[in-house]
Structure formats: C-alpha cells, structure tokens
Amino acid sequence: MTPASLDLTILAVLAPFAAAAIAPFLTSIFRQNAAWVLAAVPAAIFYHFTGYIAPVSEGQTFTPALEWAPSYGINLSFYIDGLSTLFALLISGIGTLIILYAGGYLNGHPQQGRFFSFLFLFMGAMLGLVTGNNLITLFIFWELTSITSFLLIGFDHLRAASRRAAIQALVVTGGGGLSLLAAFILIIGATGEIEMSSLLSNPDVIKDSGLYLPIFILVMGGAFTKSAQFPFHFWLPNAMEAPTPVSAFLHSATMVKAGVYLLMRMHPLLGETELWTTVLPLFGGATLLVGTILAIRQTDLKLMLAYTTVASLGLLVMLVGTSWEKALEGAVLYLLAHSLFKGALFMVAGVIDHETGTRDITKLGGLRGSMPITFAAAGLAALSMCGLPPFIGFIAKEVMYEGTWTMGPGALWVTATAVLGNAMMLVIAAAIAIKPFFGPKVDTPKHAHDGPVLLIAGPVVLALVGLAAALFTHFTGEFFIGPMLSSLTGSTMNVSLHLYPTYISAPLILSVTTVALGIVLYWQLDRLRAIIASVLRAIGWGPDKGFDQFVSGIVAFSTVFTRLVQAGKMQTYMMLIFGFTAAAVLVPLFTAGGMPDMPAMPVYAFYEWGILLIAFLGLVAVLIAKTRLTAIVSLGIQGFAVALIFMLFGAPDLSFTQFMVETLSVVILALVMTRLNLAPRDHRSPASAIVTGAIAAGVGVGIALTLMAITQQPFDSRLSDFFTAYSRTIAHGRNIVNVIIVDFRGFDTLGEIAVVVLTGLCVLALIRIKTKPDNDTPDESAAVEALSKPVEAR
To answer: Any signal peptide, and if so, which residues (predicted)?
Structure first.
C-alpha cells in the first residue's frame, strides 16, 4: 500500500461522520432516492478496504496515523491487519445494504434523514473501533458506539419502551466502557505503551507485568457488557424496540460483536492462561444455553433472532476462550457466517413485518406463494444458520466441532454445550424459515406481498454471499479466515477449508447429532415453549427485572442522599464543606507518610509574644461572644494579628492589604448582620457543638500540619529567580509583588476584581432590603406549612 492509500484509510474511517452531517440535507433533496445516493459512501469504504485483502493475507500490517494530541501520546492511529480488515469489510459491506434497506423500510418517514444520520454516526464509530490502534482513541470510538446505539434504539422516542431500551443499553454498555478505560489506563501504566501494534509486538508484556488479573477483569467487564454475555445479556433483546434496520446492523453484524472483537484482539496479550481458558468458556457456554432457551420461548420473529444472537455471541466467546487453534479457526468462520445469515434473517423479519403488519410467528402462515423472494432469502439464510451444506455455516460448524473435540481437558463439556446450543439454534432457524411460509394461509393485517427492491436486496445478497463463501472455500480461507486467525494467534496461519468432509469423522458425527437433535426439538417446539414459559414464570426474577430494581435503588438512594446533603440549611452546607476539607488534608498526611517533623520551640522577642497574645485573646473573644456582632468584631482581631506578623517579616504591602481586607470584612459583615432579623446567638445542642468544634479543629490542625510539611521541604527558587530576573526587564516594575499581580497574573487579577465587585453588589442588595418590624414577621412554621400544601390548596 502507498502512503496515499494509507491517508485514504483515515478518510475512509472518518467518511461516515461527514455523511452523517449531510444525510438529512440529501434526504430532503432526493427523497425516495436518497438511500441510493447515501449508500455510495459505505460502498466506497468497502471498495477501499478490499485493497487490503491481498497484503494482509501475506502477513503485512499497516498503521496509518494522524497527530491529535502528541504531547500526551494520543494520535488518531489505525491498525490494519486480517482481523480489522474483515470487520471493516463486514461493517461497510453490510452497512451499504442496511442503508438501502432503511430507505425502503422508512420510506416516507418524516425523520428518515435523522435516522440516516444516526446510522452513519454509528458506522463511523464502529469502523474506528475495529481499526483503532491507539488505546485512547479506540476507547473513544468504543464509547461512541454506545452513544450512537442509544440514539438508534431510542429513535422512536415517543414510545416508553423505546426510551427504556435505549437507556438500558447505554447504562450497561457505557458502564462496561468505563471498565475498559480503566483497563487501558492500567495497560499504559504497566507497559508504557499506548499503541496496540506496540503491545502486540511483545505479547507477554501484560502477563509479566503483575497487573494481569485486574486488567483481565476490567477487559472482561467491557467485552461482556458490549457483547451481551450472561448476566448482561438482557439489554440486547430489549433493544429490538429499535427499527429493524438497527437490529439487522447493530445487533447481529456489528456492535454486539465489538466485545468479541476486543477479546480476539486481546487474545495474544491475555489469552492462553488458566484464567482465560476457564472464565471465557464458562460464561460463553452459559450465555449460549441461556440465549437459545429464551429464544425457544419467543413467538416474535425479532425476539427469536435476538436471543439466538445472544447465544451466538456466547458461542464465539466460548470458542475464543479455549485458546485452541482449531477452535479459534471455528470462531473466525462462525463470526463471518453469523454476520451473513443473521443480518439476512433480521431483514427478512423486517420485510414480513413491513408487508404483513405482524411479526408474531403464531399469526403467520402460507406466505411462500405471496412472498416468494422473501421465502427464498429466508430459506437460504436459515440453512446456513442450521449448519447444513453447502453454506458457510456448515463449514464453520465442522471446524468448530473439530476444534472443541480435540482441545484436550474440558473438550467433552465444551463440545456438548456447543452441540446442544447449535441444536436449539437450528430449531429457531427452522421455525423462522418454515412456520411463516408453510401451512394454511393466514389472514394478516396487511395484504402480504414481497417488498420493493430496497427491502429485498439486502437479505438476498447476504444469503447468496453465505452460499458463495462456502462454494469458494479456498478463496475464503486464504484471504479472510487465515489472516484473521493469524491476528488471533500472533503467528502466520495457513487455513485449508473443505466444503464436504472426505471421510467419516467425529465432527461429521457431531454435526449429524446436532441436526437430529434439532429436528426432534423442533417437532416438540410448542410443548418446549410452554414448558420454558412456565419455568420462567416460576422463577420470576431475572436480570432484566434486576436492572429496574437497580435503577430504582439508585434513584431512592439519590433522593435520600440529596435530602441529607441539600437540606436547605447553611449549617449543614458549611459542615460538609469543612468536613471534606479536613479529610482532604488529614487523610494524605496520615496514609502517605507525610507527617512533618515537630519543630523546636523558637525564641521569641517580647513584642512577638505580644502579637501571639493578641491573636489568642481574639480567639477567646470569638468563643465567648454573646452575640454574632461581637463575634464578628472579635474575629477581626485575628486578621490584624496576622497583618502584624506580615509586617514583622518585611512584607509591608501584604500587611497593608491584610489590614484593609480585615477592616472591610468586619464592616461589611457587621452591616449585613444589623439588617438581618437573627437570634442573638446560635442555640445548638452540645452534641452539635462538639461535632462542629471537631470539624473546625480538624481543618485547623490539617492546614497547620500541611504548611509545616511544605515548609520543611527543600526550597525551589526557580520561580522566585524568574520573577526577580524579569520583573524589571519585561514588566518594567521595581516592586516584584505588584508586577506579579498586575502583569504576570493580569487576567487572574481582573477575574478577582470582577468577583469582588459582584460580591459588593450582592452585599449592597442585602443591605438595601427593608426588613419588617418584628411583630409583622411571619411565623416560620406557618410558612413551611403553607408551602407544603398542594398548589390547588394554596
């Protein structure tokens, strides 16, 4: 690839964001033909990435980059290898079909332009995620997928179910994103590397760092939430509230595979450890079984496909978790096959819903005559999902079983889980391909017929590509599966695929067993659905309900906490502020070993003792004052004593400023207090007095110890030397303090003056408030009682 081609790669990744900006405008111009125009963008991106197929198949990698924040080591850099190339081709290729499909599905919708814009934003985020090299930019694109999927899932925002599903997806995947950010920060701190390509060049760097366990846990948090692994699986089926183009794009072919992509990308860095090969197969296997069981219960076409998507993601995670070469090959093959057949089947479900008015499988039947093209696309995609020849799904299943059967310890359990899960997915595939199209004709809300070309092009093309990928096995293995597998293993891998087995083997027997078991389960589908439904009703609670309880708990806690810390009382606010201040200065001193050495008692002159005595008497006066006004005046004694100390140490300007501030503070506070109708002094209980006294002592002791610790450090005179050297030559001033305030800190001083002026205006406003006589002052309890009444009662 030439440098110009690498620059084009950056443009290709960022192009969807530009398309998102102009999509509403083009939609308003071209109207029904806007989809054809907009689809040219992902089609061009797809064409560009096809140029990487041959180089990456030869083991080449590319790292185009654009400077972003170089001082922090953050660049807009990308890493192109077999893994990222295949994902980019899937995103842009299926994205092209989705844009066309959305043009037909939302034809005439007043917000179609906005929908296109959201789709392109998501497409760009996903392309940046799978090609990202810099860890920080990868994380930014990762979070962008969560935000844009929130917009797409909640597209029909007037429906409560859509809003709930969007918020749920954002909370779950966004929380996982924060976990991933923490993992990346630990990786950068432990290795000193911020580029994925640099990490992959030394794959053992994380395992040898001593932080492998926390990094592993945090990476799993990001991957499991994004790819809907149990117990975080519940958000994906709920996201079916989104329009079908969203389901076909985000929740089958792209976003939900982001977690699987992350696990595949991190496999050379985190894989092949006991923790990896235990946790991933366990959670992946559980997700596979939970997803297929819940899919059998459903009668909604999209929900059936959604739960099998959860199951398929679990299968991929289980296979990646084995770290077994042949099982990894099966994972790569199944990822490709799943993207093709599941994208097609989601589009088929949308066509059925769009053209019949329902997607309830119990209310559909006999559609093969009125929807022959849709039926053909559904049949081809379902055959691949069932794992039958001659489709890519069959090859993926054969390689998968070969990998799990020969992997060594745990092979039996992993293989049995895969067989059972695949058999139940066959049930769903058969139900979707057979029940709506065969049997007696059922009256539907709309007159059933095949959709327009924009609707049927997508499922037909994806179904045929699934067939072609199997027929041209050598091409598929050499240019797609081999390079991607090399990225997972960290070494060059040659893949040899066969459409049909050449002899009877364990994988073939397992495939026949899967099909036979699936046929038996399909024969008992209605009974299975009833049994599963009754069991789930008996269990009652589930992660989805738990999410609502979790959110309700947070809201309840927030309400209680807000009432506690925002009680409307100045005393509470001041206690919180100074309490946290005391903690902020004391905790580091005690926990970080920063306690200062106690200095020796200095020898003071008699006038210095006199100043200390004045300060002490002022403190006593504040404590024993009978009125607030007396306490304010006494408090000024402390400031005057400090001003005298400044004068003794040769800072007359600072001393004068202190005298002025203290005088003005006392005068202003005294004026304000005389205008307010307050009790002579506080009537706090002894317990409250002890608490506030302890907080005050904590702040005072903490500040004193902090200042002592600072002054005991070696003095760094660089700043003082700078001001001494340049105050005269640059600012033309002899008084260094004045030069610092007026010139070097001119804007800061201007801001401080603005604050003082604003404060003075507020004080003036308070002083000018006319208070009512005491006998006219309304009873406070009566006012509170009046405000607590409903508006109608007032």
So the answer is: none
